[in-house]
Structure formats: C-alpha cells, structure tokens
Amino acid sequence: MNNELILTEFARVINSDRYQYTESDIFLMENMQNKVAVFDMFFRKTEDGGFAVVSGIQEVIHLIEILNNTPEEEKKKYFSKILEEQHLIEFLSKLKFTGDLYALRDGEIVYPNEPIITIKAPLIQAKILETPILNIMNMNMAIATKASMITRVAAPIKVLAFGSRRAHGFDSAVEGNKAAIIGGCFGHSNLMTEYKYGLPSNGTMSHSYIQAFGVGVEAEKIAFKTFITHRRERKNNSLILLIDTYDAINIGIENAIKAFKECGIDDNYQGIYGIRLDSGDLAYQSKKCRKRLDEEGFTKAKITLTNGLDEKLIRSLKEQGACVDMYGVGDAIAVSKSFPCFGGVYKIVELDEEPLIKISGDVIKISNPGFKEVYRIFDKEGFAYADLITLVKNDEDKEKLTANKEFSIRDEKYEFKSSLLKKDSYSYKKLTNIYIENGNIIENLYSELLDVKKSQNYYFDTLGKISPERKRLENPHSYKVDLSSDLLKLKYGLINKIKNV
To answer: Stretch 168-184: mean pLDDT, rounded?
Structure first.
C-alpha cells in the first residue's frame, strides 16, 4: 500500500464506487464520452417530513478544483493501482472537468425532489463525480439539517456542537462541525474546524482534568482554582467549570462558588464564566444551581447543560423550566443520530438534450426528467409560499413567473389542489446558481461560500421567511413543491411512452 498516494487530495476524487469506472470504460469504448449529460443530486424525504438545510457545496466545488489541478502523472499513479484498462487510465489521467455546476447555495432551505446540485458535463466527467458528491453532500446535509431541528427547538437558547469524538472519522468531525454552524449552532469544539474554516472553537473542561488533581472535595476546588488562574487572561477566557464529577448539588456548585470568590471572579468579569452539568437530573440540578449562584451574587454566571441531548430532551428541559444559557449537543448532531443516512441520490435526467426518466412501482423513486432549475415564490407578507421546479429552456410557467403574470400551480399528486397566483400578488427568487461554467469557477459566488458565517446568516434569513407552522418538527404544515406545466407534460409524456410500448 502506497500511503503517500492515499494522503494526497486526489484520493477524494477516487473515493468512488467501481461501477462508475466500469461504466466509464464502456462509454469510452462506445465513443460516448463526449455526449453531454445532466445529472441531478436531490433527496426524497427528511426525518420530520419538513425541509433540509444545504451544506457541502463549497466542498463539492473544491473537489472539482482538485480534479482539475492534479498533475497528469499523479492521476496516472492512482489509476494504475486500481484499474487494468490502459486506454481508460490514459483517458482519466488527462481528464479535467469542463462542464457546468449549478447548485442551491450553502444555507439554503430545500425540500424533497428539488435539484440541489445539477452537473452538466461530458458523460464520463459527470459519471465519476457521483459517489464523491453524494459522500460529501449526504454527510453535510444530514448534520446541517439535524442541527437546524435541534437549534429551532432550543431557541432562543444557543447550541454548541460538541460531537467530534462521536463523528465518523476526520472529515465527518471537521466538515460536520462546519455544517452544524450553517444549520444554526452558535459554536463548536473542534480545533481543525477552526483552522480550516476560521470558526472559533469553544470548550470547557473534562472530568479527567478534575480527577488529575486528586479525589475529593478539596481536590476539586483546587482543580477549579487552578483552571481559573491560568485561563482568566487568555484570549479564549471562558471559565466554565464542570461541577458533577462527585456531587453537583452538595459539592460541585459549592466548590465553584468558592473558587470564583477566592479568584476574584464576579459579574464584573469581562469573559464568560459559569458551570456545566453533564449528568443526573439536569432540570432539577440546573434550577438548584441557578438559585445558589444568584444567592451568592453570580447573576451573570452561565449554566451549560450537556449529556446526550437531542431535540426531544431539550424540549422536555424547556417544559420543566430548566435554568440554562447554553446547550452542548454531541452525537445527536455529529452523526445525525436518529436519522444517520440522509439519502441523497444522483440521477441522470438528460443526455445530449434528450430528457431521461427512471420510473418505478415505488412512486417516490420516479425521477423528474430534463434540465431544471428552482424558484421560490413568496406571498404578500414575505413568507415562502411554494417552490416551483421548471425546465431551464422553453418553460411557459417560468416565463409567466419571471414576468409576474397570473398563473396556476398545482400539486402533482392531487390535481384538485391548485392555486391561482394573480398578477402582482407574489414575489419570487431564483434559488439555482451557477458556480462552475465551462470548467471555470465563478469566483464571486464561490467566495461567498468560503465565509461559513455568511452561509449561516443566509440560513437564518431564509428560516425567517418560513411560516411557524412549517417550521414545527411534528407534522409540519405541508409546503408546495410543484412542477411547472411543461415539466409535468414532459414527465408524464415519457411515462406514457414507456408504458405504451
């Protein structure tokens, strides 16, 4: 095994399934490599039946940068290790992405069956990107979407992503914390996420830190005082003491109060100070601790709660009146614990401008054909009313929408469910952006993705335009995602063509 090769970035491109290269060999032998394919990446359902949050577009664009910037000789070294077809090795070693990448931006709110990424490129170029793109997007969107669910329940209390140790490997920890920020988390604990994305990391202390000073009441107080002494003047001067190593109510909170007093920490302290609870009855303990802190004059002391939290436990803590200033959430976000497989797919929808479709007895798996884009329609109050998926070319509904004319949208499954949008009664926004054109990155759009906080702010702004009924986690009010009339005709025309053979 050549570890030097495995450690180069080009390994990400070949993080793939073999069938994509088997098929590429056939396409090459059949001289099909220059046919222009259109592939859509989308998903079919979410955990709660509502929306998802886009994250990972930045990494997908970087993936294509890697493909285009890796020297031919390095590519050949990789492919020679895993492929036997010499003509395919030569072709792939010279291959660069020359197509287009369309996408909804990081931080966008998106619904089932909407094209999140559309690749339009020569067939083999588009084909070999399938697994790497899905690998990136499924992990990123699972975490961003779960973070959105948890932070919506926790609001207005902030949530920190504390799950690196439970993440499924390096990329899952680093990119996952970034995705959690996009999905609404206030902060994270991972140093590499800070290094790569410029997002400051946060942390408190561990039980082993306290145990390192010995066993018992006095040892815990020494641990607290030592921590305060060395951390109070640092740039990251958060003084959050973990108080449940022995007994949070009878020992830990009292030691924290003594340590703060003896070290001169009070409400005038310019940094953050307070306690963390990580076990036991968090609601009960938090109220007891808040009472003691307030009695001693520490009214600005913060209380952080951790310990296997998710949206259900957080809702329960709120209902019990828990005293909390911050939630630290681990594996529920880091691996999207209750819905770990996001289920994004990558389907061909057009080849040389001929629309393609996959049909199935499982209705959810019938694809939407053709080269498409997504528009969001807003009502007079500014709330998102419906999304419309249109064909890029020759689409009558899109022309009416962009001219602000009267037109109807309807539910594909229930023809009687239709709405007439009258002229000047709505506004719209095109959600689909082009990030790569003819193999060249559109730098001004890409640079926006590099600012993760900007993507988070975009998410918050978009979330504010979603009605409360559609943001709830239990049985959210349905949101219309409709196909344009021309797209519907195309889809059912292809289905009838197949069925009538």
So the answer is: 95
Q: How far apart are alpha carbons 302 and 269 in whole angstroms?
A: 12
| Secondary structure (H, E, C), 179-247 | HHHHCCCCEECCHHHHHHHCCCECCCCCHHHHHCCCCCHHHHHHHHHHHHHHHCCCCCCCEEEECCCCC
Q: How confident is the model over 448-454, as a mean pLDDT? A: 96
Measured at the CA of 54, the angle between CA 163 and CA 133, to 5 degrees, comes to: 90
Are the CB atoms for 244 and 278 separated by under 8 Å? yes
Res. 6 pLDDT band, cuts 50 70 90: low
Query: How far is Cα 94 from Cα 380, in angstroms, rounded to an integer?
Result: 53
How many Cβ atoms sit within 10 Å of the Cβ of residue 269? Answer: 18
DSSP string of 418-453, one letter each residue: EEEE-TTS-EEEE--EEEEETTEE-HHHHHHHH-HH
Contact 371, 392 (CB under 8 A): yes
Residue 346: partners with Cβ closer than 8 Å, 6 or more residues away: 39, 40, 41, 130, 133, 134
Q: Hey, CA dihedral for 291, 297, 300, 305, is it positive or negative?
A: negative
Q: Which amino acid, residue 351? A: L
By C-alpha distance, which of 151, 138, 111 is closest to 470? 111
Q: Please, which pLDDT band fits residue 499 given cuts at 50, 70 and 90?
A: confident
* 343-356: average pLDDT: 97
* Mean of the per-residue pLDDT values of the chain: 94
